[in-house]
From TrEMBL:
GO terms for molecular function: ATPase-coupled transmembrane transporter activity. This is Putative aliphatic sulfonates-binding protein. Part of a binding-protein-dependent transport system for aliphatic sulfonates. Putative binding protein. One of its GO terms (cellular component) is membrane. InterPro entries: ABC_SsuA_sub-bd. It is found in: Periplasm.
């Protein structure tokens, strides 16, 4: 199993952005830069809401929609975020809070599709004897610092009237964090599927909190450079159309699709099927509803401002990013119904 996490500190991201025009593009293929008219490089990593891209590739659905995609799987989720921010890839699968952190660092990005909401597949798992988040006070908790489940952990601590200072945070990549917990080295872990399966191998362990308790807090997206949207809108449209075609194929071929996605995630088909309830894949209508401005967690603009307040106040971001050009619903609106 490969990690969706391993987030570098924001200072490193800022340095990467500064070097973007000089070094980052030198490592990508000639056809991957936005506006080349050739291949479009799409990044993704380990998360149930992004594994459908593997189905799209294996079933030839990108080609069906007339877009030449180099689908790049990142063993390290943070590398994919940095690759998009620097311009080394054209599009990426990433969370809203990580996208906002990139914007804070100066990246010019657009969210063109909501893949899913995490509705339970991000979890805080604790050893036997710990039954609530409040019980984490003074305990060792492993998490990838600065990544999506660090955000979940901080939300959970806040709801229990605790702060990060009340725990002993052990900063580890998500796969290593889950393994450390399973091996009895820490008292709790914050992780996402498929690594939750590894953590729950520890006898007596249980989930004491999950993303299900924070509706809308962890939406996952197809994020592109604003340059790609401007220079290659037909290719962006083809990506969005491919996503909805893929969901239709999965619905009609569930067993085959589970096999493809489970293999990519490094888990059994049976384990993969347990993730269904914890990742809510968005329909076209749910996308349209999310992009519509509003005042509840259902609406991306509301959730983004809420996340910005949180990540700035907790030091996960150094400054408030502008949301100009971030939410671009034109492609979802134009997708066939």
């Amino acid at each position: 199993m490969i990690s969706r996490s391993r987030r570098r500190p924001l200072t490193v991201l800022l340095a990467l952005l500064t070097l973007a025009g000089v070094t980052a593009l030198s490592g990508c293929s000639d056809s991957s830069a936005a506006g080349s008219g050739g291949k479009l490089t799409l990044g993704f990593s380990a998360w149930p809401g992004w594994f459908p891209w593997q189905v799209a590739q294996e079933q030839g659905l990108f080609a069906k929609n007339g877009v030449n995609v180099d689908l790049k799987y990142f063993d390290n989720y943070t590398d994919s975020i940095n690759a998009l921010s620097s311009g080394a890839i054209d599009a990426n699968s990433q969370t809203l809070n990580d996208t906002l952190s990139s914007l804070s660092g100066g990246a010019k990005l657009s969210i063109v599709l909501v893949n899913d909401n995490s509705t339970g597949n991000d979890k805080i798992i604790a050893r036997d004897g710990i039954t609530s988040v409040a019980d984490l006070k003074g305990k060792k908790v492993a998490v990838e610092q600065g990544a999506v489940d660090h955000y979940l952990l901080l939300l959970a601590l806040q709801s229990a009237k605790l702060t990060e200072k009340d725990i002993e945070l052990v900063n580890l990549p998500t796969d290593a964090a889950a393994a450390a917990f399973a091996g009895g080295q820490v008292d709790a872990v914050a992780a996402f599927a498929p690594f939750t399966s590894k953590a729950l191998e520890r006898q007596g362990s249980r989930a004491i909190s999950s993303s299900a308790e924070f509706p809308g807090a962890i939406p996952d997206h197809l994020v592109t450079s604003q340059k790609l949207v401007k220079e290659r809108p037909k290719d962006v449209q083809a990506l969005v159309n491919t996503w909805f075609d893929t969901l239709a194929w999965i619905k009609a071929n569930k067993a085959a699709a589970v096999g493809i996605m489970a293999k990519r995630g490094g888990v059994s088909d049976a384990d993969y099927q347990t993730y269904d309830a914890g990742t809510t894949i968005f329909t076209r209508q749910q996308n349209l509803d999310a992009f519509t401005p509003g005042v509840t967690a259902q609406h991306l603009d509301f959730q983004a401002n809420k996340i910005i307040d949180f990540i700035v106040n907790t030091g996960l971001a150094q400054q408030r990013p502008s949301l100009d050009g971030l939410f671009d619903d034109q492609f979802v609106k134009a997708a066939p119904q």
